[in-house]
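User: Second chain of the day. Same drill as before.
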Amino acid sequence: MPIMNASDRQISENLILEAHDIVAGYVEGVDILQGASLSVYEGELVAVIGSNGAGKSTFAKAIFGLVPVRSGEILFGDRPLVGLKPEQIVRMGISYVPQIANVFPSLSISDNLDMGAYTRDGNIKEIKDKIYETFPVLAKRRNQRAGTLSGGERQMLAMGRALMLEPKLLILDEPSAALSPILVQDIFNLIQTINQSGTSIILVEQNARKALAIADRGYVMHLGKDEFTGKGHDLLNDPEVAELYLGMGNFGKPISP
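Assistant: Same format as last time:
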């Protein structure tokens, strides 16, 4: 499937997820999120960027039920998520890929994918074959232990396992972290391929320029809030965003991804 520029795509007008004024944190009385909001439309790729400590990963974990939400509302369609456990959220159609500890190292690639389909009924061969088609490197090494894979291959396996449930929404938490530049590009290409197959994606990412370059829309987090939001390309070329969050000082000049 050819990679399509995000600015050329037509996105559904149907909201798949809405998060409003989320206050959340790991420890009672210490809230990382201070009123963060976000929305995702069907088929959309939304990037969440920001400096270290801005609350990007905490936001992703709050949506997936891994961080207590003190106040605010999260809706998946018309169904509230606040207070639900991750396993309940998975069954609703949301998958989450954490930055670390995202595979079972002692199991084979094939067994890892099987574990990803634990809530599915019936034969999983067809969806598993689709995963192997999307990630050919996994197909070649399907009997290899996950613990022997490179960082990029592990990330592919983690994404493949999350896709075994054919989620409506996929949340990716820092998928390019600690990868070489070549592998980073491979991962971003795969993210686009997954999105273009119809899966909505929330991409929490430290590589802000690459994330915004492929995103339909983006959110810039600052001190636990969404400081800026807009189309990915617009944020990529916004002078203030460039100066504060992209490490660029070329005001008024387009930024290449």
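The chain has ten helices and ten strands.

User: Great, on to the next one.
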